[in-house]
Amino acid sequence: MREPDNVFHLAIPCRDLDEAQEFYVTRLGAKLARRYADRITLDFFGDQVVCHLTDKIDPRPEMYPRHFGVTFRHKDDWDRLVRLAQARELEFFQEPMRRFEGLIEEHWTFMLIDPSNNLLEFKYYLDPRMMY
Questions:
Q1: Which positions fall inside the VOC domain (predicted)?
Q2: Measured distance CA(121)–CA(46) in Å, rounded
């Protein structure tokens, strides 16, 4: 089981480090932890995302099976991120919407696409037991 002081790590492909830093740090609000010639390391909502420089970029990303993101415990946090993404004109892959309405799995979701075609999903479940 993950302890609260441990951090999840995810590495993703990136075609341009300046572009990735602009998207994740300046526009989305992640914190830059380190930058090297071939990667940037980010504090992404408390976890670690590393954008590795590569020319292997998915030209036509699809929602499934590959995306990542954050499931928020509080709706206010999800709402705040929606407003930030809209205000900063981030590119939505999927507009904010409600899924599975009326079921225990009911949740709010939206997806962003970064400059390297990585898909980011952000969710909030009405029933916190459905977060996992």
A1: 6-125
A2: 16
